[in-house]
Amino acid sequence: DTAVSQTPKYLVTQMGNDKSIKCEQNLGHDTMYWYKQDSKKFLKIMFSYNNKELIINETVPNRFSPKSPDKAHLNLHINSLELGDSAVYFCASSLGTSGSKKLYEQYFGPGTRLTVT
Amino acid sequence: DQQVKQNSPSLSVQEGRISILNCDYTNSMFDYFLWYKKYPAEGPTFLISISSIKDKNEDGRFTVFLNKSAKHLSLHIVPSQPGDSAVYFCAAGIDNTDKLIFGTGTRLQVFP
């Protein structure tokens, strides 16, 4: 029973196209994230949402637009794809560190390897 | 500006011995630290965490030590097993921000 799932696992597309990656968590968590792991293996946060509200937006180009239809889903839409967007994108979720119950750990999905040609 | 650093890209240890993975950080505002393990083609898996008010946390074969004055933490795995072979990331965060800063990872190989 997968806790954090992402689709698709692999995505190959051409420059200029628009694509989406979907993420779902069944852990009942309030906070969800998108991370990018580039070719140098740096894992960097892009966005976080808490109960459908954008909390963190890390200097990510406007071509990237997250959408959270409900707190169990956080999708990532990318417009006008560029070669530099090639990376592995990870979705994650957590209970969050604000509020009375704090659990720091974030749970990650399996990743989506995006290749832009 | 890399706030969390893992200076050893790789480590090779014999099965049964202790593995020690190191992590240094620069931001004294960090309140909590975590270690993740990652297998190829999978997402990072949470291993163990430690709050800045503690200097040690233990969970089975895994122990994390925190030295705040040196801004250094380490993960000890004992005894090491071949299944521990993976990339290990340390991460740090500031309370009430939900934002984790990851190190670049250390590839651990445990050989028989």
Topology:
The complex is a heterodimer of chains A (117) and B (112).
Chain A: E1 4-7, E2 10-13, E3 19-25, E4 31-37, E5 43-50, E6 53-57, E7 64-70, E8 73-78, E9 87-94, E10 107-108, E11 112-116
Parallel strand pairs in A: 2-11
Antiparallel strand pairs in A: 1-3, 3-8, 4-5, 4-9, 5-6, 7-8, 9-10, 9-11
Chain B: E1 4-5, E2 10-14, E3 19-25, E4 32-38, E5 45-51, E6 56-59, E7 62-67, E8 72-77, E9 86-93, E10 100-102, E11 106-111
Parallel strand pairs in B: 2-11
Antiparallel strand pairs in B: 1-3, 3-8, 4-5, 4-9, 6-7, 7-8, 9-10, 9-11
Describe the structure in brief.
The complex is a heterodimer of chains A (117) and B (112). Chain A has 117 residues and is an all-beta fold. Chain A has no helices and 11 strands.
Explain this structure.
The complex is a heterodimer of chains A (117) and B (112). Chain A is mainly beta and 117 residues long. Chain A has a single domain (4-116), classed as Immunoglobulins (Immunoglobulin-like). In chain A, 0% of the residues lie in helices and 54% in strands. Chain A is built from no helices and eleven strands. Chain A is globular and about 40 Å long. The model of chain A has no long low-confidence stretch (mean pLDDT 90). Chain B is mostly beta strands. Chain B has a single domain (4-111), classed as Immunoglobulins (Immunoglobulin-like), CATH 2.60.40.10. Chain B has no helices and eleven strands. In chain B, a hairpin with a 4-residue loop joins strand 7 and strand 8. The chains are: A mainly beta (117), B mainly beta (112). The A-B interface holds A 4, 31, 33, 40-45, 48, 50, 55-56, 90, 92, 94, 96-98, 102, 104-111 and B 32, 34, 36, 41-46, 49, 51, 87, 89, 93, 95-100, 102, 104-105.
